[in-house]
Write a structure and sequence with these properties.
This protein has two domains: 298 residues, Rossmann fold (3-Layer(aba) Sandwich), CATH 3.40.50; 127 residues, no CATH class. The chain is 29% helix and 17% strand.
């Protein structure tokens, strides 16, 4: 029956009586849990999105006519005296395709992003395809971790807001259109990717398909790794007049490019073609020791101390006994890009570091991950033997590490995970390890969950990568029509005129001959 409904929705867009009065009527809905602050019909027209510093300008999005609803759920006063509520925005197009997308957040959330349902890259957002889309702040305002003083706010951010918003959004959709969505999807990257995995693990009957990009699924361990990396890089950073490390100068641009080029020299052609992308990751075994400066040399090489720092970082965080606290990292071409530096090292020329690991990351460690919180914690005084135990309470509610998803799978749930090989904040080796655990605990997961690795890609995009692909169409085809994604065709700004297949792990794109610029010249081959 569900397949029949979906087929009808594809043939003809659901046509509700969507007008200003229908939309405005939602403003009068009231309950102890729900407050609607705004409900209005937005005519078709352009929307100019804000852009990140340094990012290229993008043309305005031409939005369809839609009902825009803004409101809050579960308003209350927290234990810290602050006002808390789960803020949300819901956009429902006048021409609806019968489907719903929950848009994941990012970082520590705390803001309500425009509910558009970005599918990544240049692919049209879900709203433009006829989906109803909801976004949320996950239960607090502000992009810092001060909300974590309140237990319920921690729970809402960790996972609880997903279920609360999902129920409310579907109820509003039903009231507006007169029917519930035929299919519900979760699409997000970074923390939004973690939230997508959490949606499948803790709300298995609420979603039919999940796209989890560069997911911070083991966020508590990644937070420990951020502190670890800062400490290792600080060991080789030059000091200011007060003896404090200048983190950004621990490795120069020239040195990072030196590493990147050395990795490419060793591993690029292993997939059959030297093209600036490393596809055969299983065959790539790089060690920075090949860049060791010979006696008396100082150019085009690295000191033994800097090689030791790289090894310490890429081998992953561990305690004094050598027990791993986080996964190792793959060496990849993206280490020499601004997106990698942005997280790990920053650009500050002073001892006041501006790397995201030392700002967003440290703030989250101080106030959210550690229980009890430690506002005065610095990266330098984190104890890798004692302090990881204090992260366990947050890990228990926050980390999307479950492999038991029998209900999600039983009702036809599908999950597509993608991960940048040069992601500087969440290691590709970590999600590879988790994917192996899915196979170990539930049998081969390829029937319902697939992992796609993106060579060269930094966090959620950027880097020397074909990082532009349409994951939403792929998950929709898989969920609704049983067409599993055997490859995703990708392109990217870094390689104009080039397309590549992204292959479901453990397969990789191997060149078999023909036009080296075309995805058709590659096959997805098992290592």
């Amino acid at each position: 029956m569900r397949t029949l409904i979906a087929a009808c929705a594809v043939l003809a867009l659901w046509a509700p009586a969507a007008n200003a009065a229908d939309c405005a009527a939602l403003l009068h809905l009231r309950s102890p849990q729900l407050t609607i602050s705004s409900a209005r019909l937005v005519p078709a027209g352009p929307l100019v999105l804000p852009r990140a510093p340094g990012a290229p300008p993008t043309p305005p999005l031409q939005l369809p006519a839609h009902c825009l609803v803004q409101g809050a759920l579960d308003s209350r006063t927290g234990v810290d005296g602050r006002h808390y509520a789960i803020g949300f925005q819901l956009r429902m197009p006048a021409s609806w395709n019968g489907r719903f997308v929950y848009q994941g957040g990012g970082g520590l959330d705390g803001v309500i992003a425009p509910a558009l349902g970005s599918a990544g890259g240049s692919s049209p957002p879900a709203l433009l395809r006829g989906f109803a889309v909801v976004s949320t702040d996950s239960g607090h305002e502000g992009m810092d971790a001060s909300f974590a003083a309140d237990q319920q706010a921690r729970l809402d951010y960790a996972y609880a807001a997903i279920g609360t918003v999902s129920i409310a959004a579907k109820d509003l959709i039903t009231r507006f259109y007169g029917r519930r969505p035929s299919y519900s999807y979760f699409v997000g990257c970074s923390n939004g990717g973690r939230e997508g995995m959490m949606a499948a693990q803790r709300f298995p009957d609420d979603f039919d398909g999940v796209v989890a990009g560069d997911p911070g699924f083991r966020l508590s361990a990644a937070a420990i790794a951020e502190v670890w990396d800062t400490n290792q890089f600080s060991k080789v950073a030059p000091r200011d007049a007060q003896g404090q490390p200048i983190l950004s100068e621990s490795f120069t641009e020239t040195e990072l490019h030196l590493v990147s080029h050395a990795v490419l020299r060793q591993c690029d052609a292993l997939d059959g073609l030297a093209d600036g992308m490393i596809n055969d990751i299983a065959a790539c075994h790089f060690d920075p020791g090949v860049l060791q400066c010979p006696a008396g040399a100082h150019q085009d090489c690295l000191s033994s101390a800097k090689i030791a720092a790289l090894r310490a970082v890429f081998d992953g965080a561990h305690d004094s006994a050598g027990h791993a606290l986080y996964s190792p990292w793959p060496y990849d071409a993206g280490i020499g890009t601004p997106g990698w530096r942005f997280w790990k090292l920053g650009t500050s020329r002073t001892a006041t570091a501006n790397a995201l690991n030392t700002t967003l990351g440290l703030n989250a460690m101080q106030l959210y991950f550690l229980t009890p919180s430690r506002p005065g914690l610095s990266d330098a005084n984190f104890d890798f033997d004692r302090d990881p135990q204090a992260v366990a309470q947050t890990a228990a509610i926050n980390d999307a590490v479950s492999t038991f998803m029998s209900s999600f799978v039983a009702h036809g749930g599908r999950m597509l995970i993608y991960q940048g090989m040069s992601d500087p904040v969440f290691s590709a080796d970590d999600i590879i390890r988790y994917y192996g655990e899915l196979a170990r605990d539930d049998g081969p997961p390829q029937a319902w969950a697939r992992l796609f690795l993106v060579p060269g890609m930094n966090h959620c995009g950027g880097g020397p990568a074909t990082d532009d692909f349409d994951a939403l169409t792929a998950i929709q085809q898989w969920t609704e029509h049983g067409v599993a994604p055997d490859r995703l065709i990708a392109h990217g700004r870094a390689f104009p005129g080039v397309t590549r297949p992204l292959c479901p792990y453990p397969k990789y794109a191997h060149y078999v001959g023909g036009d080296p610029h075309a995805a058709a010249s590659f096959e997805c081959r098992a290592p």
